[in-house]
Write a structure and sequence with these properties.
Elements (H helix, E strand, L loop, with lengths): L59 H12 L1 H18 L4 H35 L8 H10 L2
């Protein structure tokens, strides 16, 4: 800025406004008070009793339902049902976890049951076709081999 160009309101503390610290000596208002009619700012959220309301935590049974879906699926079904009931009653978080644990538990239980049925069917079919020279079944043959008879 050149000397020829003057600010319309005169110089201020930062080059603006006519007074360096306000209309009163020392800046601000008489007696050093802040703006009249306003109190101090409240503390930021989380300090001094102010803040957001506490969020309910995640339901523990919902977490366990999802974990047990991969460990022992029938337990996940029970925990998922119980967690969903608790979440509806208490308003906690974790409805998605409980639902995922419940669905995964059902799917894995059904797949495990199908697997056992297939394995037993294959074993029974193979055992029916295995005979030794005397015509005994595979079960008798395996028992003889196991016990050394």
């Amino acid at each position: 800025m050149t000397d020829a160009q003057q600010e319309p309101y005169g110089p201020g503390p930062y080059g603006q406004g006519p007074y360096p610290g306000g209309p009163y000596p020392g800046g601000g208002y008489p007696g050093g008070a802040g703006q009249p009619g306003y109190g101090p700012y409240p503390p930021p959220y989380g300090y001094g009793g102010y803040g957001y309301p506490a969020q309910p935590g995640t339901n523990t049974m919902a977490i366990l339902a999802l974990v047990f879906a991969f460990i022992f699926a029938p337990v996940a079904i029970v925990l998922g049902v119980l967690a969903r009931k608790q979440i509806r009653r208490t308003g906690e978080q974790g409805m998605g976890l409980a639902t995922a644990g419940l669905v995964c538990g059902i799917v894995f239980t059904v797949l495990t049951a199908i697997w056992f049925i297939v394995v037993i069917t294959i074993f029974a079919s193979v055992a029916n076709h295995i005979h030794d020279e005397n015509g005994t079944s595979a079960v008798v043959f395996a028992a003889r081999a196991y016990f050394g008879l």
